[in-house]
TrEMBL record:
Organism: Arabidopsis arenosa
Domain of life: Eukaryota
Protein's job: Dirigent proteins impart stereoselectivity on the phenoxy radical-coupling reaction, yielding optically active lignans from two molecules of coniferyl alcohol in the biosynthesis of lignans, flavonolignans, and alkaloids and thus plays a central role in plant secondary metabolism.
Protein name in the entry: Dirigent protein
GO cellular component: apoplast
Annotated localization: Secreted, Extracellular space, Apoplast
Subunit text: Homodimer.
């Protein structure tokens, strides 16, 4: 009988111990939006392909349905854009913005963006991904979500604030990307 009691007490304490170890106390990391763990400003340069600039083009329309309004609704663009530390397109790229964006609104210019910034420089190696709506036709600055990364940016999260610095019709644009990372490992 005493042996049975010891077995039950031992089983109870073992269960409590296992339960406690498997439910590691989770403490949500709080973010101070005034103090990102990393902050830098980059410039993205986009040159659209238009039949006569294949050597210089960094973006190409792969779907362009006709007759869907005045705001390019349904248009899909694939890109491999250089990203520099300043506004000069001829500056040495520190990254490439690879991905796509598409026009998703019939009433004004609005895009949805999925870009991975691929870094391969002496300062940074790795990637992070920007995915979000980009209502560039309505807002002077737009906040887009940074949803993860690899290498120096492993599992990072943050905000990329975009501002159009220069636009030459549909041929070329330069975006200032104010990058603030709030979760860094």
């Amino acid at each position: 009988m005493v042996n049975q009691i010891y077995k039950h007490v031992f089983s109870f304490f073992l269960s409590v111990l296992l339960l406690q170890s498997s439910t590691v106390s989770y403490v949500r990391k709080s973010f101070d939006l005034n103090k990102p763990c990393r902050h830098f400003v980059l410039y993205l340069h986009n040159i659209a392909y238009d039949d006569d600039n294949a050597a210089n083009a960094t973006a190409a329309t792969i779907v362009n349905p006709l007759g869907l309004g005045d705001y390019s609704f349904g248009r899909v663009i694939i890109c491999d854009n250089p990203v520099t530390m300043d506004q000069n397109y001829l500056s040495k790229p520190v990254a490439r913005a690879q991905g796509f964006y598409f026009y998703n609104k019939k009433t004004n210019f609005n895009t949805w963006v999925a870009w991975t910034l691929v870094f391969n420089s002496t300062k940074h190696k790795g990637t992070f991904t920007i995915m979000d709506a980009n209502p560039y036709g309505m807002e002077p600055t737009r906040d887009l979500a940074i949803v993860g990364g690899t290498g120096d940016f492993l599992m990072t999260r943050g905000i990329a604030t975009l501002k159009t610095k220069l636009s030459q019709g549909s041929k070329y644009f330069c975006l200032e990307m104010n990058i603030k990372l709030y979760e860094c490992y």
